[in-house]
């Protein structure tokens, strides 16, 4: 096969993003250029690599096989570029994916621990949903990722080879309410009281359920504001404009004017924080990041 590294990067990005349009945007190409690269890759491989579906693009078994080798090839190209850059650049790069709340409650301490060890690591981070980060792991765009799971805590994906996933910690879901008003001065709230509350939620998508609204709410929530940004959510709560869910792990970081309450009258909602990577022995840099995360937990 006569395959360019550009074509392999297109394969990798399509696998991660699930569409030619999104891959083109992330790579800085036009959609037609990505489509041409994909078609040329299939001709060179002599196999159908992409399955065009109404909900996007998925790799065929042949595409997944090539992706496995593409990760190795692209990593070797990156290592060669790194080595040719000279001794000053010979630090190991570790790409860490994190779910949104981890950026506030876990990531700063992890990076501080790594800095304190004096390790020769260059850690970059990217934020994403758990399904998106799993795709990034599969595509080789991140080396290790912090994920979340909710009951019944099923396996994160069904592809092979299975990801190496280890639990980091558990955190209970609470409700963040304004420090003034009907919930002021309380430590708990009954789930029935939340039915008519104004909710501040994250926009839902096909791959991620509605976030920011209590999962066991007995009825349809009244959503008044939607935002993907945690700080915006909490500032709106502090201003008295609604309520939202918050992990108990985040309680020490809540801004002034936001009070975390336990929810009574419904089963406890426990979220697990997981650390995931591809199977096999981790590199020294990835192992160091894993140690920093587990030490923080």
From TrEMBL:
UniProt-recorded Gene Ontology molecular function terms: DNA binding; DNA-binding transcription factor activity
Pfam families documented for this protein: HTH_1, LysR_substrate
Domain annotation HTH lysR-type: ranges: 1-60
Gene Ontology cellular component list: protein-DNA complex
Stretches assigned to coiled coil: none
InterPro entries attached to this UniProt entry: LysR_HTH_N, LysR_subst-bd, WH-like_DNA-bd_sf, WH_DNA-bd_sf
Keywords linked to the UniProt accession: DNA-binding, Transcription, Transcription regulation
Family, as annotated: Belongs to the LysR transcriptional regulatory family.
Protein name: LysR family transcriptional regulator
Organism listed in the record: Streptomyces qinglanensis
């Amino acid at each position: 096969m006569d395959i360019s590294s550009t074509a392999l990067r297109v394969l990798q990005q399509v696998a991660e993003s699930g569409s030619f349009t999104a891959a083109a945007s992330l790579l800085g190409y036009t959609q037609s250029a990505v489509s041409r690269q994909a078609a040329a890759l299939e001709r060179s491989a002599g196999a159908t690599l992409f399955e065009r579906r109404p909900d996007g693009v998925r790799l065929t078994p042949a595409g997944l096989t090539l992706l496995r080798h593409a990760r190795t090839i692209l990593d070797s190209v990156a290592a060669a570029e790194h080595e040719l850059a000279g001794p000053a650049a010979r630090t190991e790069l570790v790409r860490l994916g994190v779910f949104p709340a981890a950026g506030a409650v876990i990531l700063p301490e992890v990076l501080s621990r790594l800095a304190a060890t004096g390790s020769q690591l260059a850690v970059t981070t990217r934020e994403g949903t758990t399904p998106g980060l799993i795709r990034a792991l599969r595509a080789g765009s991140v080396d290790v990722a912090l994920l979340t799971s909710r009951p019944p805590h099923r396996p994160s994906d069904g592809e092979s080879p299975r990801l190496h996933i280890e639990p980091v910690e558990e955190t209970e879901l609470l409700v963040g309410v304004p420090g003034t008003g009907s919930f002021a001065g309380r430590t708990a709230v009954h789930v029935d009281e939340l039915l008519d509350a104004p909710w501040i939620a994250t926009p839902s998508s096909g791959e991620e359920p509605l976030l920011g609204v209590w999962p066991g709410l007995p009825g349809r929530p009244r959503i008044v504001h939607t935002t993907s940004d945690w700080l915006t959510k909490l500032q709106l709560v502090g201003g008295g404009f609604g309520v939202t869910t918050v992990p108990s792990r985040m309680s020490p970081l809540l801004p002034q004017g936001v009070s975390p309450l336990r929810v009574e009258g419904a089963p406890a909602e426990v979220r697990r924080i997981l650390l995931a990577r591809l199977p096999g022995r981790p590199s020294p840099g990835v192992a160091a990041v894993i140690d920093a995360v587990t030490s923080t937990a």
